[in-house]
Amino acid sequence: MNLVLITSIISPPNKPLSYTRTRSVFNTEERFNDTKKTIESIKAKIPNYYIAIVECSKLSIEQEKYFKSNSNYFVNFYNKKNIRDNVYSKYKAIGESTQTINIIKSILENVKDIDFKNFIKISGRYWLSNKFDFSIFDNDKIVVKQINKNKQNILTALYKIPFKYIIELKIFFINEQNVYKRGIGFEVSFSKFPTKYKDITIYLDKINLQGQVSIDGNMYDG
Predict the structure, then answer these.
(1) Of 58, 89, 98, 139, which has the most beta carbons under 10 Å away?
(2) Rounded Cα gap, residues 188 and 166, in angstroms
């Protein structure tokens, strides 16, 4: 099975990020509809998927029902203030890493007897393009996209690691919290993880992910 994690905030707070005053130019309904595309693209392009969604928003009954019906594992941390405060931090890296740390912990504690081969993370509101080829993920390697051919700047919206390294990934994010509080970019920080395993890492120049960037609405295709 391929564990595919979607990190999502359908209703982000009206608070600036460290690098922009605008957290999202899209309203809640637009973000919800885009995340539906995320889910649909996973089901269409990743075989043997096990979809986990981690949310941190006050959802409507309809939204929560949809996510539960279209995933194998769903957790909303909105009512856990310590987690919500981190997710709503001005530092994007603290928010996303907090979601990832806590959903990994939850899955390891509650999902039993499933033989996961890969862990694939995709940010909600982005989707796998028509050019996406799962065969590049179907191996025992770490697969990441380097931004502008720079191995010290790695895309965090889509990456894959062998599931056997998932605890190491959780520990890595925990250990990087003080780095994030200094305002270091998540993509720069995350680059240290595949560097630790450079002998099994595949660096791509294009990973075939699409979506509109939250802070300005520009189309990403890379």
Answers:
(1) 98
(2) 20
